[in-house]
Amino acid sequence: MSGTAFGAAMDVLAADPNIGTGAIYRAGGTGAPVPMRVVRSAPDRLGDAFGTNLIQASDVLTVAIAVLPSIEPDDTFTLGAATLTVQHAERDAAGIAWRVFCRR
Predict the structure, then answer these.
(1) Beta bridge partners of 103
(2) Would the CA dihedral through 38, 27, 93, 43 be positive or negative?
(3) How many whole angstroms separate alpha carbon 77 and alpha carbon 33?
């Protein structure tokens, strides 16, 4: 989708059935459904609550900016039976992909 080597690599990763997955994006959680491919990771995050360390599951999606030029909090992605709500999105250094932090 992008004319750069990094953009082409993002396209290949999202299309790979072992790495990418199909998703349905909805602006504001209720907008028109937009099918796309994303790369999902679910790293554990270490948090703190009242002096106690807690491990929290998180969901981070990588989405090509060429596919989705704008992402806002409360937009949603549906991946299979899971609906993930956008909390925050940031562009990568090359400006090719969003790193989208979601809650389940």
Answers:
(1) 85
(2) negative
(3) 9
